[in-house]
Write a structure and sequence with these properties.
Elements (H helix, E strand, L loop, with lengths): L6 E7 L12 E7 L8 E10 L2 H5 L21 E7 L11 E4 L6 E4 L5 E2 L8 H4 L3 H11 L7 E4 L7 H10 L4 E6 L2 H10 L4 E4 L7 H8 L4 E6 L3 H10 E9 L3 H5 L11 H7 L2 E4 L9 H14 L6 E5 L4 H10 L5 E5 L1
Helix pairs in contact: 3-4, 3-10, 6-7
């Protein structure tokens, strides 16, 4: 569609979901292409990502450091776009690729300061700019302090964050890498493609997470990257060695069910007596680390020691399906929509 076309499509939340999210909770509507106000850019979105936190943003009762989604309004989220028109003095030109926060639509008008020029010299692949690599790196480096020779457990290892966390742990010298996932197919991918030594499956008939983890890590765990909470975090604490470091990065077990939080019962005396550290980490608190992360991530992508596992669906009308499939655990890595 050329930017002269009168209309474009955008995705709105039609009703707040109770329980499982389905495409019926969304509405894809055709509306006029936005007219940029004086000083604004007009961009054509090319790629957008969906993430688990989007399910939490649909609840009306959650305190989050970002605006929630409102029924009847367009959703928002990370996107890579091509500049169509740019105001003089913005430093941007038509054809430039930028990253911004107005996904879930084909065109967007926004102030130039809300768009970041993609530096393909730093991160050579546009998909890397939409990856959750920064939080994966922070969890491994600044919260779990992965060291050479460590036995490391990554929960939710096949997701957008986990699939990168395992790779960063390897680059930091992890000696034994164990990941949890939901299916044998994804487990095979972790071992064959991402270099995991063992996999814990949270499926019927496989034994409890703790039993499988004990078998995979008979010597215990030195570092944990926890995306999930709940039973997997309890098992991690049970298997943690003296002075183990546990990074808390997400609460997928609650998000998948449409909740916000994940309640996990932990024996605090256990933590004290073994000197175990539990550390929650959020990207917004560590912006000083962005240059170091970009440098390591870019180098790894260029020399082939890192990849960005992802699935892509084509067309804005498939964006609702993409988020539903992500929450069902259908894909490995990030889930992107090409527009």
């Amino acid at each position: 569609m050329s930017h002269n076309s009168a209309t474009h499509r955008e995705v709105r939340l039609s009703i707040r979901p109770q329980g499982t999210l389905t495409p019926a909770h969304f509405e894809v509507v055709e509306v006029p292409v936005p007219t940029p106000a004086p000083g604004q850019l007009l961009v054509r979105n090319r790629l957008m990502s969906v993430t688990a936190v989007m399910r939490t943003l649909m609840r009306g009762d959650v305190e989050l450091p970002m605006p929630g989604y409102v029924p009847g309004a367009v959703l928002w989220g990370p996107a890579v776009a091509e500049v169509v028109t740019a105001p003089p003095g913005s430093g941007l030109r038509p054809g430039d690729l930028v990253e911004h926060g107005l996904g879930w639509r084909e065109y967007a008008a926004l102030p130039p300061e809300d768009a970041q020029l993609l530096d393909l010299d730093v991160l050579p692949d546009p998909t890397a700019h939409l990856s959750q690599g920064f939080i994966a790196w922070l969890g491994v480096v600044r919260a779990a302090h992965v060291r050479p020779g460590d036995t490391v457990f990554v929960s939710g290892a096949a997701g957008g964050v986990g699939s990168l966390a395992g790779q960063f742990a390897r680059l930091r010298g992890a000696g034994r890498l164990i990941g949890s996932t939901s299916t044998r197919r994804k487990g095979a991918y972790l071992m064959k493609e991402l270099g995991y030594d063992a996999v814990v499956l949270r499926t019927e008939g496989e034994g409890t997470v703790e039993e499988q983890l004990r078998e995979a890590a008979p010597e215990g765990l030195d570092a944990v990257f926890d995306n999930v909470g709940g039973e997997q975090l309890r098992a991690s604490v049970a298997l943690a060695r003296r002075e183990a470091r546990i990074a808390l990065v997400g609460g997928l077990s609650g998000q998948m069910a449409g909740g916000a939080g994940t309640l996990t019962e932990i024996d605090t005396f256990d933590l004290v007596s073994r000197g175990i550290t539990l550390r929650g980490i959020a990207g917004a608190d560590h912006l000083d680390a962005l240059p170091q992360w970009q440098d390591e991530f870019g180098r790894g992508l260029r020399d082939g020691t890192l990849t960005v596992p992802h699935a892509s669906l084509l067309g804005i009308d498939r964006a609702p399906q993409a988020l539903c499939e992500l929450l069902e655990g259908r894909h490995v890595g990030a889930v992107l929509v090409k527009l």
